[in-house]
Amino acid sequence: MGISGLLPALKSIQVTRHISEYSGKTVAVDAYVWLHRGVYSCATELATGKITNKYVDYAMHRVRMLQHHKITPYVVFDGGPLPAKKGTESDRKSKRDENLARGNAFMAQGKMSQARECFIKCIDVSPEMAYQFIKARFFHALRAESVPYVVAPYEADAQLAYLEQAGFVDAILTEDSDLLVFGCQTVLFKFDVVAATVVSISRKDFGSVAASSGDANGISLIGWSDVQFRAMTILSGCDYLPSIPGIGLKTACNLLKKWRTADAVIRAIGIEGKKSVPVGYLKQFKLAEKCFLHQRVYCPRQEKLVYLSEVGSDWNNEFDAYVGG
């Protein structure tokens, strides 16, 4: 989940803050992050078909923690599968199935510790779990306290980004670095309920990110545009497009500094011939970029589906099908 190596590369602009600093604010919450974390406490029960509400309790505790500090949570759930992530989701399902089989084998041998590790890896937050989370407890709790929530038409990431962009929320609480690629301004990570702290990254600080000589994985964003930042992350590999083999975050950063645009970088790699550019990669890059820019989201104000940002005159049915028509 997210862009590999991005958060460590932005270490210099990460600020630990007490959540009370956001008192009086509305913070959008990626509900599935809490659900995924919650299943850790009941992975064996879920993998073996036993009924449990532990993951609901885990998420509700965090909602109440925000409310205690006078923060309004605006909870966002994933919706339907995005066509652009068909390959990614297929790979993830295959890995989950493999770990489930291994876990059952360990359990049959009485190796409960090893079985639990496998079960943790195989658990997915299914639509049924999301339904239970909303209907059984969370839905009624939010309505009773007038806390807003929304089920995204597709991915929560794009919906979270839209809520901030449209002024519904002041910040976003997640563990997914993709939110930075979507253009979000204030993203909060690593919510610690014991210390009541979060780690904040502000987009306005991107221009101060500079690679030091002793940092092997460092990147520099000085003088960079949003277009270049987005291109760097897509080139390094994202959920919508695997990277060109051998191209990680730092390499993508260096190539863009030299060639300026993604088109020029891809052409240069092909001409040099040292790395193999997959057939159709440039077209897939453009489609991935459209997912970050124009994915379909729900507008609570207009009560209808809209694009994350307005599309151009070149928009066509292929693009619509890819980002959610």
From TrEMBL:
Residues annotated as domain XPG-I: 143-215
Required co-factors: Mg(2+)
Domain named XPG N-terminal: residues: 1-99
GO cellular component assignments: nucleus
Keywords: DNA damage, DNA repair, DNA-binding, Excision nuclease, Exonuclease, Hydrolase, Magnesium, Metal-binding, Nuclease, Nucleus
Record keyword GTP-binding present: no
Protein localization: Nucleus
A GO BP annotation: DNA repair
InterPro entries: 5-3_exonuclease_C_sf, EXO1_H3TH, HhH2, PIN-like_dom_sf, PIN-like_EXO1, XPG-I_dom, XPG/Rad2, XPG_CS
CDD domains documented for this protein: H3TH_EXO1, PIN_EXO1
Sample GO molecular function, one term: 5'-3' DNA exonuclease activity
Top-level taxonomic group: Eukaryota
Family matches, as SUPFAM superfamilies: 5' to 3' exonuclease, C-terminal subdomain, PIN domain-like
Family note: Belongs to the XPG/RAD2 endonuclease family. EXO1 subfamily.
Name of the protein in its database record: Uncharacterized protein
Annotated source species: Psilocybe cyanescens
